[in-house]
Specification:
Strand content: 15-25%
Order of helices and strands: HHHHHEHEHEHHEEHEEHEEE
Number of domains: 2
Low-confidence stretches: 271-283
Largest sheet: 7 strands, mixed
Oligomer: single chain
Number of helices: 11
Bound molecules: S-adenosylmethionine
CATH superfamily of the largest domain: Vaccinia Virus protein VP39
CATH architecture of the largest domain: 3-Layer(aba) Sandwich
Structural class: alpha/beta
Distance between the termini: 26 Å
CATH topology of the largest domain: Rossmann fold
Shape: globular
Length: about 280
C-alpha cells in the first residue's frame, strides 16, 4: 500500500468515524481491505481505493471505514474493573432504583463480549438486577456476530471463567453459544458514536472502553459530551483502564482505573464549554 493510499484511507476513517490511523498500520489496513476488494470484484486494494477515488460511493466508503476499525475485545477484559462493577456498582445502583431496573450502554461494543460480561454479572448477583443493555458499534459485521452470541473455543478461553462458561453457554459443535436469556438482555444498535445519541435514552452505567484513545481530539470531545449527557445523575461511566478522559467536574474516580461516578450534586459542565483535553492511551 503506497503512502498516498494510506493517507486516503486515513482521511476517510478520520472523517467518518473520528478514528486516527497511524502510519505504521499500513500492513494491517491492507490486510483488512483485501476482503472488501474481493467482494467488490476488483483486482486488489489499490484498485479498490482507485474506484473509491473515482466514485465516492457512500456504501463502499462505509465498508472501507468499518474494515479498518480495531475490534479487539474479550470477556471480562480488565478483570478488576468487572469485579468492581459486579460486586459493588451494580448492586449499589440497583438498590437506589425503586424498581431495581438498570439501563447499561456499551458504546463501541465490538463483537459483544463486553455487553455479555455485564449480562452475566447482573444475572449472577445474589439479588439479580433487571438490566437492559444497549450495545452500540459502527460495525455491521461485529454486531452480526454479537447478535448470534456464538463464540469460538479460543474466544471463550480469553477471560471467561469456566464456571460462567458452563453456567451461561451451550456447546454447539466446536463453538459456544451464550444462552437465550442473556441474549435477550441486549439490544444491538449499529450507530456512529459521532452521531446524536440522545435517542438511546439515559443510562445508569455507561461503558466506552478502549475506544476514546483511538479517536481524534475533536471526536473524543464530541463522544464524551454525548456520553456524559446519556448518564443519569448518579451514573457510572467506564472508560479503558489506561484511558484518561477529560470529563467534567461532575465525575469523580469510582475505585478502579477507568471507573468514574457522576455526583448528583455537581451540575455537569455544558458540553460546549468543556475544555477539549484529549483522552490518551498509555503505551
Ligand atoms: C477496540 S474495540 C473495544 C471493544 C470493547 N469496548 C472493549 O474494550 O473490549 C473498539 C470498538 O469501537 C468501535 N468504534 C470505533 N469508532 C467508532 C465510532 N465512531 N462509532 C461507533 N463505534 C466505533 C469499533 O468498531 C470497535 O468495535
Amino acid at each position: 500500500m503506497t503512502p498516498a493510499d494510506l493517507d486516503f484511507v486515513a482521511a476517510l476513517v478520520r472523517a467518518h468515524a473520528g478514528v486516527v490511523i497511524r502510519a505504521d498500520k499500513a500492513f494491517f489496513i491492507e490486510t483488512r481491505l483485501g476482503p472488501v476488494a474481493r467482494r467488490e470484484k476488483v483486482p486488489g486494494v489499490p484498485a479498490l481505493l482507485e474506484k473509491l477515488r473515482q466514485t465516492p460511493d457512500p456504501v463502499l466508503t462505509r465498508q472501507v471505514v468499518e474494515a479498518t476499525l480495531m475490534q479487539e475485545t474479550s470477556f471480562f477484559r480488565d478483570r478488576a474493573v468487572f469485579e468492581r462493577i459486579g460486586k459493588v456498582l451494580l448492586p449499589e445502583l440497583a438498590a437506589r432504583r425503586p424498581d431495581g431496573r438498570l439501563r447499561v450502554l456499551c458504546a463501541g461494543c465490538a463483537t459483544g463480549q463486553e455487553a455479555y460480561s455485564i449480562a452475566m454479572l447482573a444475572t449472577d448477583l445474589a439479588a439479580p438486577a433487571a438490566v437492559e443493555i444497549v450495545a452500540v458499534d459502527f460495525g455491521q459485521f461485529p454486531l452480526e456476530k454479537a447478535r448470534t452470541g456464538l463464540y469460538t473455543h479460543f474466544e471463550v478461553q480469553r477471560g471467561l471463567p469456566i464456571r460462567r462458561l458452563l453456567a451461561h453457554f451451550d456447546k454447539i459443535d466446536e463453538n459456544w453459544r451464550i444462552r437465550a436469556d442473556l441474549r435477550q438482555m441486549v439490544q444491538w444498535v449499529e450507530l456512529n458514536l459521532l452521531d446524536d445519541l440522545t435517542g438511546l435514552g439515559n443510562f445508569d452505567l455507561v461503558l466506552c472502553r478502549n475506544v476514546l484513545g483511538s479517536l481524534t481530539p475533536e471526536a473524543q470531545t464530541r463522544v464524551l459530551a454525548s456520553l456524559e449527557a446519556a448518564c443519569r445523575p448518579d451514573a457510572v461511566l467506564v472508560v479503558g483502564a489506561q484511558e484518561t478522559p477529560a470529563l467534567s467536574a461532575a465525575f469523580r474516580p469510582a475505585g478502579s482505573p477507568g471507573l468514574w461516578q457522576r455526583s448528583p450534586t455537581v451540575a455537569p459542565v455544558p458540553s460546549s464549554a468543556s475544555t477539549p483535553v484529549p483522552a490518551r492511551t498509555q503505551a
